[in-house]
Design goal:
Blueprint (H helix, E strand, L loop, with lengths): L4 E9 L2 E6 L2 E7 L1 H11 L4 E5 L11 H10 L4 E4 L5 H9 L4 E4 L1 H5 L2 H10 L4 E10 L2 E6 L4 E6 H11 L3 E6 L11 H10 L4 E4 L5 H9 L5 E4 L1 H4 L5 H10 L6
Helix pairs in contact: 1-2
Length: about 250
């Protein structure tokens, strides 16, 4: 069994880390590079930096952010936001990113996943999926969660895998920022259906939630933001507790 990963996520807007609830009510959480360095020192396995308004505002993720992060950190990091071409990915990897996260662009043009996987290798390509549960169906959203699409979560995740995605980063919009726990049922279904790693995002509020997402859902990594940003749980404490409860953790 692969060791489970703990991944702090830094949502970036206008050069600052922000965090909200259900993708709204954003509040400032600090400098993304300073926070990233702190989490690296505390034992985070990886980091994810997402420019959450890049697509919505028709901007590109700043290569300068990747450059700053690469010069201050020694753990792998993923960067995403507004990535829509081979050229975009090439720039970010050249500036030090280990992986890129693609979302809106590949929903609009799924074959971009195939192109990126061929050019850079699947290990570099994380397909992020933001989805909201409406009655019994999970609807994929784009543009920072602001626009619903005609895609359904599980079929889209399977298609992304078949096209060459190396990982799926699934954020439940219903759970995001609530601290009431991950979308366990949906994650369990996704992890059972896919052969590539699944990163669980949205809803982490306690150590118990991480235990549940690993033990019950079978997620490969647990991603969280506000509980780390506002020092509600330390990464060291989280990892120690999970190890004591039999979870294989890095």
């Amino acid at each position: 069994m692969l060791a489970k990963r703990i991944i702090p996520c830094l949502d970036v807007k206008d050069g600052r880390t922000v965090k909200g609830i259900n993708f709204e009510q954003l509040r400032d959480a600090g400098d993304p590079v300073e926070l990233g360095k702190l989490y690296s020192d505390q034992g985070a396995d990886e980091l994810v930096f997402l420019d959450i308004t890049a697509t919505k505002e028709k901007r590109k993720t700043l290569a300068a952010l990747a450059d700053r992060v690469a010069h201050h950190l020694n753990i792998p990091f993923t960067i995403g936001g507004g990535i829509g071409s081979i050229e975009d990915v090439d720039i970010l990897l050249d500036h030090g990113a280990d992986k890129v996260s693609v979302n809106s662009s590949v929903v609009r043009k799924p074959e971009l996943i195939d192109q990126l996987a061929r050019e850079f290798g699947s290990q570099c390509i994380v397909v992020a999926i933001d989805a909201r549960q409406v009655l019994d169906e999970w609807i994929v959203h784009v543009a920072g969660g602001t626009i619903p699409t005609d895609k359904e979560l599980f079929s889209w995740a399977l298609e992304a895998q078949e096209r060459g995605a190396g990982e799926i980063l699934f954020t439940s919009m219903n759970h995001d920022g609530t601290k009431n726990g991950f979308a366990i049922s949906a994650l369990k279904r996704m992890c059972s259906a896919l052969s590539i790693p699944v990163i669980a995002s949205g809803g982490a509020g306690s150590i118990e939630h991480f235990y549940d997402v690993f033990q019950e859902a079978g997620a490969d990594a647990g991603l969280a933001a506000s509980i780390f940003h506002f020092q509600e749980i330390s990464i060291l404490e989280l990892k120690d507790d999970l190890r004591q409860r039999g979870i294989t953790i890095r």
